[in-house]
Amino acid sequence: MDWQALIDQMTNGATNALARLIILVEDRAPGWREAMQRLYPHTGNAVAIGITGYPGAGKSTLTGRLVEALVESGKRVGVVAIDPSSHLSGGAFLGDRIRMNAVSNLEGVYIRSMGSRGIVGGMRAAVRDVIKLMDAFGKDLILVETIGVGQDEVDITRTAQIVLLVCAPGQGDAIQYLKAGVMEMADIYVANKSDLPEAEQMVENLRSILFQDEAGGMVGPSIVRTNALKGEGIADLVDAVEKCVAAKRLRDDWRRQRVIDDVKSLMKERLEVLANINGSENQELCGFIEDILAGEATPYALTDEMIVGTLEQLLTQHQR
Ligand SMILES: Nc1nc2c(ncn2[C@@H]2O[C@H](COP(=O)(O)OP(=O)(O)OP(=O)(O)O)[C@@H](O)[C@H]2O)c(=O)[nH]1
Ligand SMILES: [Mg+2]
What we know:
By secondary structure, the chain is α/β, with parallel strands linked by helices. About 50% of the residues lie in helices and about 10% in strands. It is built from 13 helices and seven strands. Helix 9 links the parallel strand 6 and strand 7. Helix 4 packs across helix 10. The protein is globular and about 70 Å long.
């Protein structure tokens, strides 16, 4: 595998090299870590925008509209669509494809769908790498549509710099979001499907939860009304996103936070190897278990020993 050639082609603007790199890195093909290491200095320019919200809230429709508007204003846009492939809503995925196809032909747009298998219960590290690859490729903005369930929504705050929470009337009200712990995490609240009769009530609910006054916007995070179907409110949303990015860029920890998240995510991936060790196959673990059963040791001491041992193994693998 000639990683360097692929990297050179990609940084020279070859989309097929980007596509190839994404697949290889996603699959964790041998050499992926070194490749990412070489690319890391070319990253850090793009801003990742997470788009989350309950299934059917209009995330894909809105993403398509956002892509159009951003391309119009001269931005190079990447999209990571996390497919609910292993879920029952396979049909929705197909719909996403059709909607996305329309925008994928726009100049400067690159769309990558990723299966959600393995992502639920933690934004898979590969999602971060795909974002990094698009970043190194020269994208300005990368929209990440999540599957909008559970832990995924919370994890997106560690993956994206800006998070949009898409709400829609009748799509689980604001209280449900509060309970799920995703209410506080968003930077911008999108009140989508503003054409529906219950839309104003939803905006009221959002305001009361976010402690905003009638004027809105100035007190807490922005609430933006959209009709993604017709493309209404998209200019306001782009405006809110740009303001949010500009404000965040001014913060001292803008770059630092990203580095912290990168390091933590990579460590987590490494340590998951430990957590997934199979008790009947791993010789070392089998030995430990026998010791415990024989009353010669306790799990408390042995877990530490095990972690040290596995880390040493990982290190030797890495040095090879
Ligand atoms: N009335 C109305 N319908 C909308 C609006 N935005 C999206 N929809 C419709 O809502 C349905 C779901 O939209 P999607 O964009 O697929 O929603 P999603 O959040 O991506 O859904 P999942 O990916 O399945 O979680 C589709 O039938 C859209 O046409 C809107 O502003 N108003
Ligand atoms: Mg969708």
